[in-house]
Amino acid sequence: MKRVTGIGGVFFKSPDPKRLTEWYRVHLGFDVSEWGGVAFRWSGTGTTAWSPFKQDSDYFAPSTAPFMFNYRVDDLHALLAALRAEGCQVEDKVDESEYGKFGWVIDPDGNKVELWEPPEGK
């Protein structure tokens, strides 16, 4: 079974996400979407997201790190089952929406890692 197939996103906290996003838009040419981040399109199929979060966001909890990586996977449920069988700390919650399937595992340093199975063809 393939596990991680690419980086789906880089998410991090900022004291002022709007100011920071504007700096990246102006100085580095980021094409910021209405949702507040950037979707870098790959030359083939797929994207990598970049998005700052508010400093007080609890989206990365239980991690206390100011960042979270999102990795693309081919089969989220199979990977989460394998990680559980290997003794990893896997969150029970799985989100499924038009954006794909999302699950989370905590690495040995306590960082929350988001695993993302994109919708078919994305």
TrEMBL record:
Origin superkingdom: Bacteria
Residues covered by the VOC domain: 6-118
InterPro entries: Anthracycline_SecMetBiosynth (IPR052164), Glyas_Bleomycin-R_OHBP_Dase (IPR029068), Glyas_Fos-R_dOase_dom (IPR004360), VOC_core (IPR037523)
Name the record gives this protein: VOC family protein
